[in-house]
Amino acid sequence: MPRKTGSYRITRFEGEQVRAFVPSPLPPKAPKLLLDANLETLHEKAQASLGQLKIAGKMVRSADWFLYGFVRKEAVITSQIEGTQATLRDVLSFEASADAEMSADVAEVCRYVEALQYARRELARRNGLPISTRLLCGAHQKLFRGPGSPGKQPGKIRTSQNWIGGSRPGNAQYVPPPAAEVATAMGQLEKWIHAEDPLPPLVRAGLAHVQFESIHPFLDGNGRIGRMLITLLLEHWQLLESPLLYLSLALKRRQDEYYDHLAAVRTKGDWEGWTGFYLECVQEAAADGVDMAQRIFALVEKDRRKVAEHPSATLSSVRLFDRLQSSPFITLQGAIDALDTSKPTAGSAIAALEDAGVLKETSGRKRGRIYAYQGYLRLLSRD
Questions:
Q1: Domain span holding position 353
Q2: Smallest Cα–Cα separation from 134: which of 190, 194, 176, 213?
Q3: 51 in helix, strand or coil?
Q4: Is the N end or the C end of the chain the one with fewer CB atoms within 10 Å?
């Protein structure tokens, strides 16, 4: 007999009868979720992969080389799952150029980065917000701040019915809880996150994601905030020290399976199927991260030697190379600011990096030129 994972509320929407799903509080019950031999093996492998990723993150000369790119790669991919078209190069190029026009898709990705940074700052502050509905509302407000988002109620739990798929709740693929049930459901999720539970933290992070997606507490952005919740929980439960796991890439590769497993939890109570799929994605994403870390480490060390040994190398050019960790795109003004130096000195530093084959001018303009660390970008833009 399938496990019951929730109940239905019969409501009316614009004169039409609607069956809205209200998920039961975590943890899964009747029967409890138990890790069989297969799930135990998957958990051990995923946990070991996270340990390797943690070590790999410390290989790079500066963690900023790693963290800067990984956070933005995750931001791009989690947004692409929701239909945005911005690429990593689009986002990084915009960040480097103060006078660049920001497309709506690039703006969405940049706001995701801001939302994640906000949430991590709050969790790190002594008196900051814990993982909670308030914290996720704050991240949601950052995600949808600015013009064009008022109908999405930035930072607010929804007060109306939403749905997934279809043109209305009556023909939707999934109808989340009625608005009146959302605050209670989120409160129960928050309580479970901070309660003791015998399930391993890595598994619990996956369950929390499904529960959040089933509640769908916002009018928009639930997928991105729900995947961000996994990132925050992995750090909260000290499985990682920073957001190095770009899980959205593994989920995007298997996007149909991802949605099918979410649906199977609601319709069949298949928490085991979801957990196995999720742990496979964690292992795959961690392996991606380890491979990327090794490649970044090798590239940066090789190119730093090239710059230092180049005939036109100066202290400023080496310092500028190290500053590329905070952005693989640079402008002349950006170099002046980064080095706190004069225009001629900054220009000479850029020219030395160009001569060494590290930077390449990408804008084709005479004024406001943009230079890219092409090798680094090629690595980050894989997949």
A1: 310-380
A2: 190
A3: helix
A4: N
